[in-house]
Structures are given as C-alpha cells and as structure tokens.
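agent: user wants the structure for Glycosyltransferase family 92 protein from Oncorhynchus tshawytscha. delegating to structure tool.
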Amino acid sequence: MTKKNLMKIFLGLTLFTMGCIIFITQKWSVEQLFRRKDWEMDTCFANLSTDPFIPIQGSKTFVLNAFFEHRTHNMSLRLISIVWRPEKTIHHCLLCCQDRLFTSLAKRTIHNSHFGFPYGTGDFLCDIPEDCEPTHAGLVSEDFDPEHVTFVPILNRVPRESSFPVNFTVCLSTMFGGYNNVLQFVQAMEMYRLLGAQRVVVYKTNCSCDMEEVLHYYKDKVGLVEVVPWPIDTHIKVSSSWLATKSPGDLHYYGQIPALNDCLYRNMYQTKYLLLHDPDEIILPVDNNTWGELLSTLEIKYGNKANFYFENNVFPIEKTDESSRFNLSEWATIPGINFLLHVLREPILKSHYKTGKLIINPRTVFEISVHGVKRQNSRTVDVSSHLGRLYHIRRRKNAKLKSRDFVRDEGLLRFAPQMIRKVAHSLSKMNLPSQKQ
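agent: tool returned. relaying tokens verbatim.
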C-alpha cells in the first residue's frame, strides 16, 4: 500500500470520526436532555402566561396547558395544543427544573377528529429527566429566543386512583354566539345536581348579559360551575359548525374538541367520572335516580375501568307540548327552551352515525372526541337504552318523519317536580337584566 493511499485512508477515517462526533452531539442535543448554562432560571418566571392560548414563536401552534403524564413508561409531560396540521416544524419542551433549564424533544400527535379543518387538536409528549422535577414548561420551535419563551405551570402533579375531590364532573364546551338559552341552562344545572354532579366546567367564548348573571350565580353563590375563558376567536378564524362547507373557518366548532381534551386532562385526578356533553343534553338513568346508582350497576357488570357511551335520543324543539302542565306561566318571560315540553323523540334508525355522549373514567383516556373515546387503555361500553339514555333537545334531524312516527317518551318528567322547585329557587336568587322592570 502506497503512502498516498494510506493518507487517503487516514483522511477518510478522520472525516468519518468527526462526522460521527457531530452526529452524536447533535443527536444528544435533540433526543436527550441537556443543560443550557447560558439560560437564566429567571426566564421561567419572567414569562408566565395567563392567556388561555399561547402562540409558539416560529410556529402556528397554540399551547393550552401542560400536564404530568403518569401513564407512560418513563415520566413525561403532555402539552394539550391546537396545531396547524400541515406544519412540519420540530418542537421541543423547555422544562424549569429546580435551578436548571432542560430541553426535550417533543413528539407531536395530531388527533384524528379535525373534520377536515386545517387546525386541529394535538398533543406534545416530552420525556422528563430523572434529575429534574419541573414546575413549569414551555414549547419551542427550532428557531427560538429563550428570552421570549412563554411558560405555564405543569398540572396533575400528584396522581390518584381513589378519594377524589368529587365523583361527577360535567364538561360543557364552547359557549359562543351570544348564548342566551337561559331557561334550558338553569334546568340542566338543576338536573345535573339532582343526578349527582358536583362540578360543571364551562368553556366560554361569549354569552348574553342574562347568561353572565346565571354563570355568576352558579359559580360564585352555588360553587357548582367553573368558567374557563375561551376567547379562541381572537386567535384563530373559527367555524360555528362541524363542517367548513356550512361555516368557513380554520378550526371546527369554536374549538370544541381541544376544549374537551383540555377538560379531560384538567379533571383527570379531580373527579371519579367525567361526563362530556352540551347543556341541551342530559344523560338520564332509566330505573335509577342518580348517576351514582347507575354507575354502581354498570361497574358490577363491566368493572370500574370501563367508559360508557349513551345513544343519542333526539327530542325536536319543533315538537312542543304546549298543553303540558309543565308549560309554566312564571317561565314565559325567561329566554330559552323548556326541557319539560318536549316528550316526543325521533326513532333511532338501525343504521346511523353515532352521535351519543359519554361518561368516562378520565384516567383511562388519552384522547377524546365529541362522540367517542379515540385513544384509551380500557374499553368503551355501549349502554343499553333500558339502563340509560341521552335526552337531547335540538332541531329535528330527520325531516321525513310523520307525526305518527315519533315515540312518546316521558322519562324526564319523573324528575319534573324536583327540578321545578330547584329551578324556581335558583331563578329567584338571580338578578336577570331582561327581567328588570
């Protein structure tokens, strides 16, 4: 072998070794956790956010909240977000750990329930190093300035499998469009309380002055409602429909699905069971009087890890029983729909798109959509209509039905005397602007 060839081999090996060193160094900086000594710890507390939607520099992503994820093999962090689905930007988590700052590669998951809109729900999963106990976290793109990273507190620090603060929490997503269905909302709150709800979470974009008073009453005087500000229309062009063809926009239905996922994670260790539906809906036990009694029956058969789906039963608002004894004159001036006047429901077709709602064990669920669990470590059981039904007062879905086709269902009326007393009491405590003389 000539000296010239030896020099070529030596040069080649040198370049190869240098390439490996660079690759390993870059790999470590991306996939492993490392300390950045040039970042001050004060960065974490100088840029704390109070905005529900945190824009990420160099990206179209918005972060909602950060949560400890206790269900993965290694300790990790999950950031619930709204993501621009076509975007290919690489993101990292920035973790505030005692007196140090760490970064970790963020694995992005785009939820499938986006209904074709360019924005959708996403989450970012980041590993946490063994020597780090983070208190706050931020999400950064490839090109970022550490002085302008926005941080949020990390929630769900302590997991629990029992002794929850409450047994039943209801998530009501995306109140928008100047919502003013006062009577129905008050009826829903009182029915939820009768059935066992101890907390109701409302994601509010906007509502009427009357509804502001209703929310104030249930939040500050009763302690039932938690209002989460949801000014999403100031950040994203939102649709007011589930289809862009019906209402153009970049995100489905005022961000209903990211709101539901945020509510899922917020309440994961705060409630035994979580109900996800709208204020024009009530999951009603057929033979039992409360959700607690119903779930005790279901747990005996399916265990306490299952999630439960209740089929949608539509009671059209166009079908009103004006002669009903529950058409109360004292409610005539209260804006909104009276649940008790709607006792005719559409028959459920054998073949149909499932639009029911859920009672879930939130600790078994990773990803939720409007009408179903999308990712879980358990199973979802379709509950028999002989045990429980979703009562849904809405516009009729099947315009071809004749009057004789509707089914009379008075299941809700057995709760009417109690509900009427509760509603009357609550309305007497409110100072509705529309009712002032």
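agent: one observation worth passing along. Residues 19-38 have pLDDT under 50 and may be disordered.
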